[in-house]
Specification:
single chain; about 80 residues; mainly alpha
Length: about 80
Amino acid sequence: MRITVRLPDDLGENVKRRTDNVSAYVTDALTEKIEREERRRARWELLDMAGEGSVDPDIHEQNQQLRRAEDRSGDPSLE
């Protein structure tokens, strides 16, 4: 499928500097984003099923910090 998007110039140039295949790069980025959203939704569904009335309000930020650390480590076993 062909999709046309508008990006800020600096973002587009950044992508072009990183890869020779922009389509594959964007495909990978979108796939990763969708998978992340699905995992987040699944976690919330599990919390709902557990019936716990309270969720640590900082849990999202903690998860994001862990994810950033995993992304920097490059260790696929941590995903």
